[in-house]
Design a protein that fits this description.
mainly alpha, about 150 residues, 2 strands
Length: about 150
C-alpha cells in the first residue's frame, strides 16, 4: 500500500487516469435494472482513491469538475427537455419550492448559529446535493484552509 501511495504522490495523474479507467469499468456492471454508468463510476473511484491523500492542483480540479457537470448534463439533458410539457408544471413548482426552502433554511441557520460562508455552503451542498453548490463549497473550504487562522 505504501508503494502505491508513493507512486500516486509522485505522479497524481496516474491516480486521475486510474479513476477514469476504473470508473468506466465499474460503470458497466448492472445491478438488476440499475447501472451506475461511467461518469458516476469514475466519481466513485476518485473518491475512494482520494482517501490515500492525493493532492491535485486546484486548476485541474476546477476543469475536471466542469467536465463532470458537462458529462452529467450531456447524458440527462435531452431526456429532461423531452419530458417537459403541461403535466410537468407541478414538478417544476415543487423543484422551485424545494430549492427556495432549502436555501432559506441554510441562510437562516447560518445567521442563527453565526456560521462562516464555507461551512454554510458545505451544509447546503450536503442538504441539497447540487453539484454547483458542491463546487462552491469545496472552493470556499479550500480558501479557508489556505488562510492563516486568527488567533
Amino acid at each position: 500500500m505504501e508503494f502505491l501511495e508513493s507512486i500516486f504522490h509522485q505522479s497524481p495523474e496516474i491516480a486521475l487516469f486510474l479513476s477514469l479507467a476504473g470508473g468506466y469499468w465499474i460503470g458497466k456492471f448492472q445491478f438488476g435494472k440499475f447501472q451506475l454508468g461511467g461518469v458516476a463510476g469514475s466519481l466513485l473511484v476518485a473518491v475512494v482513491l482520494s482517501q490515500i491523500g492525493i493532492t491535485i492542483d486546484n486548476g485541474i480540479k476546477a476543469v475536471l469538475f466542469a467536465l463532470f457537470i458537462y458529462a452529467v448534463g450531456f447524458e440527462s439533458g435531452p431526456q429532461f427537455f423531452r419530458s417537459l410539457g403541461r403535466k410537468s408544471i407541478r414538478e417544476i413548482v415543487m423543484a422551485a419550492v424545494l430549492a427556495i426552502s432549502g436555501l432559506l433554511t441554510v441562510v437562516l441557520l447560518a445567521k442563527m448559529f453565526e456560521l462562516d460562508k464555507g461551512l454554510a455552503a458545505g451544509i447546503a451542498a450536503g442538504g441539497l446535493t447540487q453539484s454547483a453548490i458542491i463546487g462552491t463549497a469545496s472552493s470556499a473550504i479550500g480558501n479557508r484552509q489556505a488562510r492563516p487562522s486568527r488567533g
